[in-house]
Design a protein that fits this description.
Largest sheet of chain A: 9 strands, mixed
Number of domains of chain A: 2
CATH architecture of the largest domain in chain A: 3-Layer(aba) Sandwich
Structural class of chain A: alpha/beta
CATH topology of the largest domain in chain A: Aminopeptidase
Order of helices and strands of chain A: HHEEEHEHHHEHEEHEEHEEHEHEH
Helix content of chain A: 25-40%
Oligomer: homodimer
Number of helices of chain A: 12
Largest interface: A-B, 68 and 69 residues
CATH superfamily of the largest domain in chain A: Zn peptidases
Chain lengths: ~400, ~400
């Protein structure tokens, strides 16, 4: 068992620890800053060259092949949800750190074998908890989100991501001085498929589609006491009806889609004022993009009909459609082979959750590797993966990275 | 037309003015502090003796009968809702200020007539927007809310009312050095009855009952993506179902009750985490207390049944029952007579909204006088009362106060 890995996971779990055994390390908070500082120290200690780019992505470079401009990137994220667990993201960063160290040692022992460099990355704001949308740093790196737009994202208090990164001293200036060749990420599954199937390694071949609809319900403020019921235009009543309808529609569809309405803001949110403006973040996820689009349309039509009698209008504030995507098939084959060669069981699967690997796949071939997650608990302090299972993931990751830096 | 009254209303409307023409002057914010300072200056300018008590209630004493220990109190509140109008509360304070001035002048012109003193009051946190419950300062003054408990009320950010009052320099030490004999309050109606009936003055004889139920819905955090729908325990879904049920029940009851669910807090309120804890503030108002109790019971039973399949538990955080109350019949008769003598039409009515007069009625005979409110708009920038109607209210208030300080 890699006691180094487990000691590191325990050490990072203390940064932003919550009383219930979980972690709250929101992007660009002092807790995130403390985790970043600790990671920087661990990188420097292992002689990795530290770079921080303009959106706060951290890179630790192992110069295995100084004459090459190419790099294999391995990474994940240190930020968490408010009710985060001890593994989501941080496991991939810390296992990545140790895998880079192991590959560098092996490269030093076998001079000439490494054909390219190896880089550990910590991507900014994967979770999208404090700033929406999620996958911010990796999307900027992939070139699908403009840096200015990313820096201008605001949290619930109106602070921008750029200001928040500056406040914790993590807004860098250095682009990664190497050309990315491919990306590899190791993560806990966040679902229960591997556990149910009794398989040790998940090889992710692609992702479910998602449609994210953020709706603003506009009513009118009035006194909750004397105002006649028929005169009220209650935006929260309309939002509540829409939330209930959303789940009814998903269940009735029999589509197997997943759906959520997990974030809401209410104005003025005073017990004595009929709410005049409410925003709700709705999500539809399905294996097929067309189904997420169709469910969204059906939902919008249903909501308009359902809330019309309430005198409340809706505005679509966000309509983000993430299609399905295939991750690098060559990377998947390599992961399957590496697991088999290490004597570990492996299976191909899809991811339903978003991951930096999906954002980075837009710029370079990307691979995603899962280890089992107990009961699929995720975004909760109950999140748990057996230490032995974490070690198996690290072993596969190390082997994959070795093959990636040495293959022709 | 009293241009002084309208100039004062306009001046106070600039303190905490919102771009849409309304006012946001939450209790113990800098805006509230600025309004209090302005009121203190207006009191001192009119030679009223200023006192501020430990819960921040402001008193301006007109010593009309220095040998008497008794005082008639007139007042209302300067705080507002986040979407407040230009009249709610502040009209009663400013009309009270001018009425006290007029009575004092008349008392000086008719020496020996005044048998007791007259006090203008601004009560702390009538609205209950930033700190719940509402009617805080008047309830402390009436002896029905302990000072310590009131000072310890916290806002959404965790700041206490005591700290907030201290921060704006409005936490005083002086109790009112007089014995209250009766209380009179002038307010805009906040409903549309007077306008619909074409009557100039409302004489409030009592109030509707209310039951305020704040429920905490407890589920479990999980990832909104991979977690199977059947495994989720979604507190926001349960809350939405309860809100819809709440209104359905009110409508089905045919009771004429008013109901609202206007405030909600959601944890962790991140788009990617199934909400694990949600609190909603529900209200039932009716002319009969028994009906508010019965509706609350029916609602609680219905909610338990409705959310049981969602695996979400509920806890009753607040169950506040306000019965009906009769205001001072002698005061009502006096107001009716004063209006008639001034040639104004008047009618008896009930108040559905809460008012400081209702809290103070527990300690002294209290009277409440309404002027019409256009369309009943209240807690909205659209709130409006004709200047001439405001003047009529001031005239009645002045006459009532004169009779109150001079009668035997």
């Amino acid at each position: 068992m890699s006691s180094v890995l487990h000691d590191l996971i325990a050490a990072f779990a203390r940064i932003g620890a919550t009383p219930d055994g979980g972690v709250c390390r929101l992007t660009a908070t002092p807790e995130d800053g403390a985790a970043r500082s600790r990671l920087a120290a661990e990188m420097v200690h292992r002689r990795l060259g530290l770079h921080v780019d303009a959106i706060g992505n951290m890179f630790g470079i192992a110069a295995l092949a100084p004459s090459s401009r190419e790099a294999v990137i391995v990474g994940s994220h240190l930020d968490s949800q408010p009710t985060g667990g001890r593994y989501d993201g941080v496991y991939g960063v810390l296992a990545g750190l140790l895998a880079v160290e192991a590959v560098a040692l092996r490269a030093a022992a076998e001079p000439g074998k490494a054909r390219r460099n190896l880089v550990l990355a910590n991507w900014t704001n994967e979770e999208g908890a404090r700033f929406q949308p999620s996958l911010t740093g990796s999307s900027v790196f992939a070139g699908t989100l403009a840096l200015d737009a990313a820096l201008a994202l605001t949290d619930g208090e109106g602070q921008t991501l750029g200001e928040a990164l500056g406040a914790i001293g993590c807004r860098g200036t250095e682009d990664l001085p190497l050309e990315p060749r491919c990306y590899v990420e190791l993560h806990v599954e966040q679902g229960a498929l591997l556990e149910e199937e009794g398989v040790e390694i998940g090889v992710v071949t692609g992702c479910w589609a998602a449609r994210k609809l953020s709706l603003i319900f506009r009513g009118e403020p009035s006194h909750t006491g004397p105002t006649r019921m028929a005169r009220r235009r209650d935006a929260l009543r309309a939002a509540a009806r829409a939330i209930e309808l959303h789940y009814q529609l998903i269940e009735a569809s029999g589509s197997g889609a997943h759906a959520s309405a997990a974030r809401i803001t209410v104005y003025p949110n005073s017990p004595n004022v009929t709410p005049s403006q409410v925003q709700v973040w709705f999500e539809f996820r399905h294996e097929e993009a067309a189904m997420t689009v169709a469910l969204g349309e059906r939902f919008l039509a249903g909501v308009r009909t359902a809330i019309e009698p309430l005198g409340v209008d809706i505005e679509i504030a966000v309509d983000e459609r993430r299609g399905t995507a295939a991750l690098d098939p060559q990377g998947a084959a390599l992961t399957l082979a590496s697991a088999r060669d290490l004597g570990l069981s492996a299976m191909e699967m899809k991811t339903i959750a978003g991951h930096d690997a999906l954002a980075l796949n837009r710029r370079m071939p990307a691979s995603l590797i899962f280890v089992p997650s107990h009961n699929g608990f995720s975004h909760t302090p109950a999140e748990f993966t057996e230490p032995a299972a974490l070690d198996k993931g690290l072993a596969v990751l190390t082997e994959v990275l070795w093959r990636r830096v040495t293959d022709e």
